[in-house]
Structure formats: structure tokens, C-alpha cells
Design goal:
It is built from 15 helices and 16 strands. With 449 residues, it is an alpha/beta fold. Strands 2-11-7-1-6-4-5 form a seven-stranded mixed beta sheet. Strands 13-14-15-16 form a four-stranded antiparallel beta sheet, covered by helices on one side. Strands 10-3-12 form a three-stranded mixed beta sheet. Helix 7 packs antiparallel against helix 8 and helix 9 runs parallel beside helix 11.
């Protein structure tokens, strides 16, 4: 019954209930994965295209999966339930996410599809795939460096059908008369070998390109049937950041040490502080390019450019996925409003990304749009599944996998450990902090008995 009530409430929350003769606007959400707000200055060029910047945008979670689910459902992680937890593996999260997203009618993806929107996801982040409940009419995952859509298609066939055996794949192509595909396979493989060699010689950095070039090409070629919802994720601001650590082993080990032991003097930090700005700058450039590729749709679209979280570079933590610090939770937010919609002024000091579904719903219905409030939160339930915490003690694990909430209000900012019932840091009076947390917790769905 609880699940049904949640679904009905979300359906109503996202539903297009108004009747209007005007053409419904397209909805475009561009997520620049892992982009800190204080490294997003290049996005100021969006103002030349009619975008409006909104201040103090807060990500509802410190890593991709729960943050994106919140962004398209309007619910915080403790409300939608799709988040990290002790001993939860990626496979566990797949099951949790697919069941949870189905229960919630897939958030905006389901709510708008029911009202004749075509829905599209084009992403470099595999968490935004059907495996994790992101069900769209079209879902294109670009998990790395590819030169064309054909290259991507051949890669999927190579992995899925041939188990990464190039010889057998080439032999079958020739045997079945797929001569063009066989030649293209050789060309793409050769190009990859050349890139890897150039990387090893130090004349090319493989850590920079993470799929957005192909994503831009795909968008340039697409002709979307209007009205449509398009969710895009690009990864150039995401790790790997270091040319000698393309699999993130060194970086993830450093993050794990910090989480377990609060190890703050790792030498990798100085290298990250030099490298991250280059990656963030490239991500911004690619985002601007994607917006330009969408020019045919600008006038009749609500376009939201933001990030799902930032990245800590030794300023209170390292990496992302666990900590609740400003460098990780404050993200950029730029919005271009459709023609005929007057850009609203920010109505509160903060903007939670959980407001995005209501903003979209109000624009579609022609209702008054409110952007901002004086309260925003972010939640963590522990380290994400890709972190190694096997060396942590029982007491450390208890702390790591606590439910913690970062609260931003006009009056005070604090982090509260719900599991331990303590204020970890902040400038809020204890009674006030506990009252805010109590009110928030009361909004969570209760389990059935």
C-alpha cells in the first residue's frame, strides 16, 4: 500500500494536469558529471544564449546514482530508497534501482512519456542505463572513447557476442560478407593502438576524453520528435584524472584511506589539484558545444544545465560518494526558459536539485514557477559500492555506514548523523538542528508491516 501511495503521489506531482493549446516545451537536462560549482566559471557563456544562473544549487547526494534518481523523481535518497548501504554491491543496487524506479513510474521518464513526450537518455555514465532503472524510449550509453556510432555498435557486438575476441569477430565478419564492418574494425582497433602508444610516450593523454565528443555528434545527427525529454550526462570532469592511473586504482585507494583513517596528507592530492581544473574546463567546453548542437530546439525548450555532484580535492575529504562537504554538494545551475515564459527570480537562498521535477511540471502546465527555497539537504548512507572498506574496523564501519544529512538553511548549516543522533559539524543550535531533522525524517515512507 505504501508503494502504491508513493506512486500515486509522484504521478500527481509529475503529471501534466492542465489543459493548454500552446505547444508543450521540450525538456532538456544536461548533467556535467562531477563538476564543482567553483570550477564552472566557463558556463557564464551560457548567458549569451539566454540562460539564467541560479545560486547555491545543492546536490541531494554525493554520487551519481542517488543524485540522478532524486533529480528525476523530486525525492531525497531516504525517500526513494535508491542509495548506497553496508554490503550493497553494484548488482544489489541494480535490483533496488529497477524495482524502485518502476514503483515510482520512472520519475520524469514515465510521467512525461505518459503525456506524449518521447524520452531519450544519452549518457557517458553507465549508471543512467536501463540496468539501473532509467527506462527511456531511447537509451544510448557511450562508456568511453569512441570515434563514431558505428564504432560504438561494433564495440558492443565485440563485447556482448564475441567475448572481446577480435580474431573470431573478424573471421565471422568476413565469413558472413560483412566486409565493411571487418575493415572498420581493423581501422578502429589500429586507431586505439596508436592512441595508447601516444599516451605511453607522453604525447597524448587518454584520461581527458570520456565520451562527450561522440555524444555531441549523436545529438547533431538526431532529429528528435517533439515534444521530447532529453537527459544527457557527460563525464569529462569525472576521474580518471591522472595519466598513470587510468583505472583509478591509486585514486580509489587514496579515497578509501581518507574515509577510513582521515588520511589527509596523501601526495596524490597536489596532483589532483593541478589536474582537476583541466578536466573541469574541458567538460564545460563540451557542455557549451552540446548546447550549440541543440540550437534548433532552443526556443521551444526548457534547458537545465547542472551537475550531479562535485569532487573533493583535499578540502575536507577526497573524491566523491561519501563526504558531505560544500565542494562536493554545491553545483552549478543554469536554466534557459522556453519562449513565452518569463524567467523567475530565485525565491530562496538555496535550490535543491529535487526541485527540478516541480519546475518542469509547472512550466508544462503554464503554472507559476518557483525556483529556490530556504532549505536544502543532501544525504549519505555510507561509501558507494566501488570503494574498498575491507580494512576498516567494526567501529569505523559503524561510522562510515551511518545515515548522515547535510542541511543548508538561511539561518545555519550543519551535518547531522541520524544513526548516532549527533551533530558532526556546523553552526546550528542542537535543538533547532534536531527539529529540522525530525521534520525531514517524518516525510520518509514507512515500511509495511
Amino acid at each position: 500500500m505504501v508503494g502504491l501511495r508513493i506512486r500515486r503521489a509522484l504521478w500527481s506531482y509529475l503529471g501534466v494536469t492542465g489543459t493548454c493549446d500552446m505547444k508543450r516545451p521540450n525538456i532538456i537536462i544536461l548533467v556535467i558529471d562531477t563538476l564543482r560549482e567553483d570550477h564552472s566559471q566557463g558556463l557564464n557563456r551560457l548567458s549569451e544564449l539566454g540562460f539564467v544562473k541560479y545560486e547555491n544549487a545543492i546536490a541531494p547526494a554525493p554520487w551519481t546514482l542517488p543524485s540522478h534518481v532524486s533529480l528525476i523523481t523530486g525525492l531525497y535518497p531516504s525517500q526513494h530508497g535508491i542509495h548506497e548501504g553496508f554490503s550493497r554491491t553494484n548488482e544489489d543496487l541494480m535490483h533496488i534501482a529497477t524495482a524502485g524506479m518502476s514503483r515510482l513510474n520512472y520519475g520524469l521518464l514515465g510521467g512525461l512519456r505518459d503525456y506524449e513526450y518521447t524520452t531519450h537518455i544519452i549518457t557517458a555514465n553507465p549508471y543512467l542505463s536501463t540496468k539501473f532503472g532509467f527506462k527511456a524510449y531511447e537509451n544510448v550509453v557511450v562508456p568511453g572513447r569512441f570515434y563514431s556510432e558505428k564504432h560504438l555498435a561494433l564495440y558492443r557486438e565485440w563485447v556482448g557476442k564475441y567475448g572481446r575476441n577480435r580474431y573470431v569477430m573478424f573471421r565471422d565478419f568476413v565469413k558472413n560478407g560483412r566486409y565493411v564492418d571487418a575493415i572498420l574494425g581493423i581501422i578502429y582497433s589500429s586507431m586505439n593502438v596508436i592512441e595508447v602508444l601516444a599516451h605511453r610516450l607522453g604525447v597524448h593523454d587518454l584520461s581527458m576524453e570520456k565520451g562527450s565528443r561522440l555524444i555531441t555528434r549523436i545529438i547533431e545527427k538526431r532529429r528528435f520528435m517533439e515534444p521530447f525529454l532529453l537527459l544527457i550526462n557527460i563525464m569529462e570532469a569525472h576521474s580518471p584524472y591522472l595519466p598513470d592511473d587510468l583505472d583509478d586504482v591509486k585514486y580509489n585507494n587514496a579515497i578509501s584511506r581518507w574515509i577510513i583513517d582521515e588520511y589527509v596528507n596523501d601526495p596524490i592530492i597536489e596532483r589532483l589539484r593541478i589536474s582537476y581544473p583541466r578536466h573541469a574546463s574541458l567538460a564545460v567546453e563540451r557542455a557549451i558545444g552540446i548546447v550549440h548542437a541543440l540550437r534548433p530546439y532552443l526556443d521551444n525548450s526548457l534547458i537545465i544545465v547542472t551537475s550531479d555532484h562535485g569532487e573533493l580535492l583535499g578540502d575536507g575529504g577526497l573524491g566523491h560518494g561519501y563526504f558531505l562537504k560544500d565542494g562536493l554538494l554545491k553545483v552549478p545551475l543554469w536554466i534557459r526558459w522556453p519562449s513565452g515564459v518569463k524567467p523567475p527570480k530565485q525565491a530562496g537562498h538555496y535550490v535543491s536539485l529535487t526541485q527540478i521535477p516541480s519546475i518542469i511540471n509547472n512550466v508544462i502546465n503554464g503554472d507559476e514557477v518557483r525556483v529556490g527555497s530556504d532549505l536544502a539537504l543532501s544525504e549519505s548512507f555510507g561509501a558507494p559500492p566501488y570503494m574498498d572498506y575491507s580494512k576498516a574496523t567494526h567501529e569505523q564501519l559503524r561510522k562510515i555506514f551511518s545515515h548522515r544529512v547535510r542541511v543548508y538553511t538561511r539561518g545555519c548549516i550543519f551535518t547531522y548523523n541520524v544513526s548516532m543522533e549527533i551533530i558532526e559539524e556546523g553552526n546550528c543550535e542542537e535543538g533547532t538542528a534536531k527539529e529540522i531533522i525530525k521534520n525531514f525524517i517524518s516525510l520518509r515512507p514507512q515500511p509495511t508491516t
